Amino acid sequence: xxxxxxxxxxxxxxxxxxxxxxxxxxxxxxxxxxxxxxxxxxxxxxxxxxxxxxxxxxxxxxxxxxxxxxxxxxxxxxxxxxxxxxxxxxxxxxxxxxxxxxxxxxxxxxxxxxxxxxxxxxxxxxxxxxxxxxxxxxxxxxxxxxxxxxxxxxxxxxxxxxxxxxxxxxxxxxxxxxxxxxxxxxxxxxxxxxxxxxxxxxxxxxxxxxxxxxxxxxxxxxxxxxxxxxxxxxxxxxxxxxxxxxxxxxxxxxxxxxxxxxxx
Length: 264
Ligand SMILES: C[S@@+](CC[C@H](N)C(=O)[O-])C[C@H]1O[C@@H](n2cnc3c(N)ncnc32)[C@H](O)[C@@H]1O
Hints:
- The chain is about 25% helix and about 40% strand.
- It has helices at about 1-20, 40-50, 65-75, 90-100, 130-140; strands spanning about 25, 30, 55-60, 80-85, 105-110, 125, 150-155, 165-170, 170-175, 185-190, 195-200, 205-210, 215-220, 220-225, 230-235, 235-245, 245-255, 255-264.
- The strands form 4 sheets. It has a 7-stranded mixed beta sheet, with helices on one face. A 5-stranded antiparallel beta sheet has the order 14-15-16-17-18, with no helix packed on it. It has a 4-stranded antiparallel beta sheet with strand order 10-11-12-13, with no helix packed on it.
- The protein binds S-adenosylmethionine.
- The site of S-adenosylmethionine has 24 residues, from helix 3 and strand 4.
């Protein structure tokens, strides 16, 4: 009886799920976004903007006919390029296209729901997806290795402002560099002085104060890009990298530059 009830519930749920999806693929598979290919000049602009090179692992989430993935392997020599698409027709097309382009060994296509896929190894993520999908993906995108690049076609990441954008004809492509997590109080010593830097962070935007010898000064020209940052305060120019709970930096004071490590 219990089993019968479970089966009835299961079959009742399937048409409801299908009805909820606004878009379907060629075989009727429900999609979260329709298949609309990115024009090749826009593909080129996206990969150029992300500065894709031989060290990169590129993922296109919702990869369509594989054009971004194939171009990343073919024209940018990406170490690995992966396309994820839920539609088996697109995956078949992509594999054929990769073979024709001679990059079948370096362009990999996975028939998966992108919301269940693991793209944490990506150093570059490309997307031409609807805004609500990008919003849903944002927490996972924020956990990519700092310095990883994300490029979108047309749609943005809401209040996570793009680092750069470019118009390509009527279209716009956007770039984000995944920022390191740098908020907190960092302490370091320089000569006889002990400094504390209080940093706040809103995505890639940073601000804060420097405290030394009972004085406090706001940071100026503070910029974070990936794991690299700079700021100035109280006659110091700070240029550093953050790795977890450690900062290594070059600090210039009164014309002299020192190697400094700071901890949080
Ligand atoms: C707008 S097209 C973009 C295609 C390709 N990235 C391009 O720019 O040419 C969106 C793609 O996302 C795929 N898609 C939609 N929902 C998906 C999901 N939940 N998981 C994986 N792929 C999905 C569709 O099949 C379609 O190929």
